[in-house]
Design a protein that fits this description.
The protein is an alpha+beta fold and 151 residues long. It is built from three helices and six strands.
Length: 151
């Protein structure tokens, strides 16, 4: 397993809601940014997904909030595997959002798979991407999930 993948950002003007703290949809947007950094750094930048005509499709997002974050606060976001099918067709990933003081602000668990843009069905990802997902550090509650491909 590799070290926990993470990126650091600052809460920006566009991230805050009416209450002046990091808004709920901004957590999702930042999580996608971290996810795309991971894919890019593991040989799958956005143009490679486009070239191969497939990409991640999200089926469920579940977020739990713990602490508020405000504009210009530094935010560290981790990216780990919370579940994976043996063929890597389906995944469950976890993003934890930490404030600069190290306190957990929120935890997001995302369930998804790899969608063929041709067939509009879930597919086995290319070996390089499957290996990146298999080598992603795992959460303590990691689980093997059922494949989407029918035998």
């Amino acid at each position: 397993m590799s070290a926990i993948f993470e990126k650091t950002f600052h809460v920006g003007w566009a991230h805050v809601d009416f209450n002046g703290h990091l808004g709920n949809t901004s957590f999702l947007d930042l999580a996608v940014d971290v996810r795309m950094f991971f894919f890019s750094e593991n040989g799958f930048p956005a143009h490679e997904f486009q070239r191969l005509r497939f990409g991640p499709v999200i089926m469920k997002d579940e977020i739990t909030y713990f602490k508020e974050m405000y504009m210009l606060d530094k935010i560290r976001i981790t990216f780990q595997s919370a579940g994976l099918s043996e063929d890597a067709t389906r995944f469950k990933i976890r993003n934890d959002f930490f404030r600069e003081d190290g306190k957990l602000a929120a935890s997001l668990t995302t369930t998804g798979g790899w969608l063929s843009l041709e067939t509009r069905k879930l597919i086995v990802p290319p070996k390089k991407l499957a290996n990146a997902m298999k080598n992603l550090s795992r959460t303590d509650d990691f689980e093997i999930i059922k494949s989407s491909i029918k035998s």
